[in-house]
Specification:
This protein is mostly helical and 73 residues long.
Length: 73
């Protein structure tokens, strides 16, 4: 599994993921929104922590600098 997310991308994903999880589980939303925001938040948090996004891999995208991607891959 090659890292395909840059530092800024990872930081933004973690921050947005945590924010969505807080909104979902703090009772700010109800119904299907709890599940939707919880799942999206968890996915963003995990992909940001790991540094690999399966969707980026399928679309052959990456936000890592070229030299960084070569070292880790």
């Amino acid at each position: 599994m090659t890292t395909n997310e840059g530092s800024v991308d990872r930081i933004v994903r973690v921050i947005v993921g945590v924010a969505l999880l807080v909104v979902a589980f703090a009772g700010m939303v109800t119904g299907v929104w709890v599940w939707l925001l919880g799942i999206v938040g968890a996915v963003l948090l995990v992909t940001g922590a790991v540094g690999f996004c399966p969707l980026y891999a399928m679309l052959n995208m990456r936000t890592t600098p070229a030299s960084d991607a070569k070292r880790k891959g």
